[in-house]
Amino acid sequence: MKLKSVITSASVVAISAMAFSGIGGSFTSLNASAKTAKLTAGKKMKAGTYKLEEKNYSHGYKTKFSITVNKKGKITKSNYDQVNKKGKSKVDDASYNKQMKKVSKTNPKTYEPKLNKALEGAAATGNVGTIDVVSGATESSKTFQNYAQQLVQAAQAGKKSTIKINNGAKMKDGTYTLKEKNYSHGYKVTFSMTVKDNKITKSNYDQVNKNGKSKTEDASYNKQMKKVAKTDPKTYTPALNKSLVKNSDPTKVDVVTGATESSNTFVLYAEQLQNAAQNGNTKTITVNNMVFSD
Question: What DSSP state is assigned to residue 31?
Fold first, then answer.
């Protein structure tokens, strides 16, 4: 899956930016312009160092991740790494790197610096959606983006306590909720999922306006998007929700053709809700999503 939002059709470009932007999170539909676009909603990140750490080892390694933000609210240093019990980085595991390189054409020694560089570059303002999945390292790339988004949220709030991810743990029963704070082109994301016996039994991802009306009910928007993208919120929203319930795993949710950005946002937020469920934390997650001018 490619997590970066890309507009490939000339006909899509011809439509106003309003038609397909403002999907959610720190994403914008025109990511190339987000580098210079003005931030119109969502807090800038506060200066400091923010940390995230997995609790559990998987195949001998766990993730440790930190970002440093300067006074201008930009990420100047990204340090994503996977370390073993001795604190040795996976990039230094010659045997693992050699084996993975043969199979995947990449390895930690290659993809880890690439992901860190991406966060220090185009995504330095917190626009995590500009980060590409590294071919051959899809799972690690998805994990990177999920954790980067959580660190950005911490930096916006100035929360410097280390984020603890109970990776690999079973999800605890309950309903877990995430909401965006800011509207982009009239809509913001609301998302809840219900867990029972370590399975996701209900998923309710939606984009709503200030009146609480779903984008799936916006006939004009749906008609316009359908003509260009061959899909619309009325189609892809239930498809994404159904896929998450079927798989009980955000990483197994497929991107809906024509709705790449919404699919990516869905997966990103679903992963964050999964992390909350692993900790049994039912407190609503409020995402102070960044909105940029077109």
Answer: G
Q: And the tokens for 217? A: 């009910």
Please report whether residue 3 resides in a domain.
Answer: no
What dihedral angle (degrees, nearest 10) is formed by the CA atoms of 223, 214, 30, 69? Answer: 180
DSSP annotation of 255 reads: P
Cα 62 off chain centre by: 19
Burial of residue 72, with CB atoms counted within 10 A of its CB: 0-12 exposed, 13-18 middle, 19 or more buried: exposed
Host domain of residue 224: 10-38+170-292
Q: Is 192 domain-assigned?
A: yes
Residue 155 has, within 13 A of its CA and on its CB side, a CA count of: 34
pLDDT digits (tens, 9 = 90+) for 225-248: 999 999 999 999 999 999 999 999
Q: Which residues contact 185 (CB under 8 A, 6 or more apart)?
A: 18, 21, 22
Task: Give the span between the Cα atoms of 247 and 164, in whole angstroms.
Answer: 25
